[in-house]
Design goal:
mainly alpha; 4 helices
Length: 101
């Protein structure tokens, strides 16, 4: 059961270039890919920007947990501050990979 692909028209000038290459003695035609339109580029940039924002939203609890673990108890309940003023015992995280459970 073969599925047929829809007929697509080549951009202007592409068909003529393929014919010229075949007449010039080349065995296989060179594939010419037209550049992306401005609308396609802008939509791709918008999609990636949305993905970055969503990724930051999903990583916020992780960042918050690590930040809170470096604070003292009064600092952790004082208010919104993602980066602690005086991180306590950050050296504990350095040895995590060296020691077993």
């Amino acid at each position: 059961m073969a599925t047929e692909l829809p007929d697509r028209q080549l951009p202007p000038g592409v068909a003529e270039e393929v014919v010229r290459e075949l007449e010039g003695g080349e065995q296989t035609p060179r594939l010419v890919v037209p550049p992306r339109t401005l609308r396609a580029r802008l939509s791709r940039i918008l999609v990636y920007a949305i993905l970055v924002v969503v990724a930051l939203l999903f990583f916020t609890p992780f960042f918050w947990s690590v930040s809170t673990s470096l604070k003292t108890l009064p600092e952790s309940v004082a208010g919104f501050d993602l980066i602690p003023d005086n991180p306590k015992e950050y050296w504990v995280y350095v040895g995590v990979g060296r020691k077993g459970p």
